[in-house]
C-alpha cells in the first residue's frame, strides 16, 4: 500500500504539472500588448473594440486633460500595462470620441 501511495502521488504530481503547462500555454497564446495606447478618434475607438479578438480583454479609459482623477488613472494604467500584457489598455480623450 505504501508503494502504491507513492506511485499515486507521483502520477498526481505529473498530472498537475501537465495541467499547469497547458494552462500557461493557453494564457500565453494570442496578442501581447504591454503598453497604454492612445486612440485618436471615434473611428479608432470603434475599430479597437470591433476588430479585436473576442477572447481579448480591452479596457478603454475615456479621459479629459486637466482632470486629476483622469491623470492618475492614465498613470496607473501605464504602470500596469507591462504586467498585464494580455489585456489591451487604451485611452481616448472624451472630446475625440465624436460623442
Classified in CATH, the superfamily of the largest domain is: Glutaredoxin
The helix content is: 40-55%
Extract low-pLDDT stretches.
none
CATH class of the largest domain: Alpha Beta
Strand order of the largest sheet: 1-3-2
Category by helix and strand content? alpha/beta
- The name of the CATH architecture of the largest domain is 3-Layer(aba) Sandwich
Beta-strand level of the residues, as a percent range?
15-25%
Task: Report the radius of gyration as a whole number of Å.
Answer: 21 Å
User: How would you describe the shape?
Assistant: elongated
Note the total helix count.
3
Number of self-contained structural domains: 2
Average pLDDT number: 88
- Pattern of helices and strands: HEHEHE
Question: What is the number of beta strands?
Answer: 3
CATH topology of the largest domain: Glutaredoxin
Q: Mind describing the biggest β-sheet?
A: 3 strands, parallel
The separation of the N and C termini measures 71 Å
GO biological process, one term: regulation of G protein-coupled receptor signaling pathway
Protein name: Phosducin
InterPro entries: Phosducin, Phosducin-like_reg, Phosducin_thioredoxin-like_dom, Thioredoxin-like_sf
Family: Belongs to the phosducin family.
Amino acid at each position: 500500500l505504501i508503494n502504491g501511495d507513492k506511485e499515486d502521488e507521483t502520477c498526481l504530481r505529473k498530472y498537475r504539472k501537465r495541467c499547469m503547462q497547458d494552462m500557461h500555454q493557453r494564457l500565453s497564446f494570442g496578442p501581447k500588448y504591454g503598453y497604454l495606447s492612445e486612440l485618436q478618434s471615434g473611428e479608432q475607438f470603434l475599430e479597437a473594440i470591433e476588430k479585436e479578438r473576442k477572447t481579448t480583454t480591452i479596457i478603454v479609459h475615456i479621459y479629459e486633460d486637466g482632470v486629476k482623477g483622469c491623470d492618475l488613472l492614465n498613470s496607473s494604467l501605464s504602470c500596469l500595462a507591462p504586467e498585464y500584457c494580455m489585456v489591451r489598455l487604451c485611452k481616448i480623450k472624451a472630446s475625440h470620441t465624436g460623442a
